[in-house]
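Can you make up a polypeptide sequence alongside its tokenized fold?
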Amino acid sequence: MPISPTPPDALLQRLEARDRAVSATIATRWPHPRALTLPLGALSLTGNYGIVWFVLAAVGAALGTGAGFSWSRFVYVAGAVLVTEWLTYAVKRLVRRRRPPEREPEARAHIPVPASPSFPSSHASMSVVGALAMSVLYPGLWPAFAALAVVLAASRVYLRVHYLADVLAGLCLGLALGLPYVALVRI
């Protein structure tokens, strides 16, 4: 008896169900002590609109040269993060995936839920681009920038404002935008 291929819709439904289950496990079954969720939530909120990357770019631009504030260093990072935010938001508007607490009312988020759609995670995409750009300017600090990007991205699932697939797609989008940027745009 021949094996019939799985219809694409059935495969997508299974993948989405698995994504929701894994995300729910991380967001509800893992421990969420207040001593961790409060600072992690505060850090995650600094990722809104790329604020943390704008601040780091400004600090680096102010301290990175002896000749005063370096607008070119600031724009190198902040401009890339801002464009990434816009492009990610455009994809969000096309896909329009609802966030976990919106789809599952019994699922409570650990921080305020953004009003924007969920897929892909702009925190993840901006974090990759921000970390790559900052690492080009300050290569000795790349482990810190990479760690910050990972924590910001992972926090979104842990705090239940994104599904895991949202974050993974955001990371991929960030790599797709960030790698050519740092390879082609020189400061």
User: Anything to note?
Assistant: The radius of gyration is 18 Å. The helical segments are 8-29, 34-46, 51-63, 71-95, 100-103, 122-137, 142-158, 164-184. The CA atoms of residues 87 and 137 lie 23 Å apart. Residues 71-95 form the longest helix (25 residues).
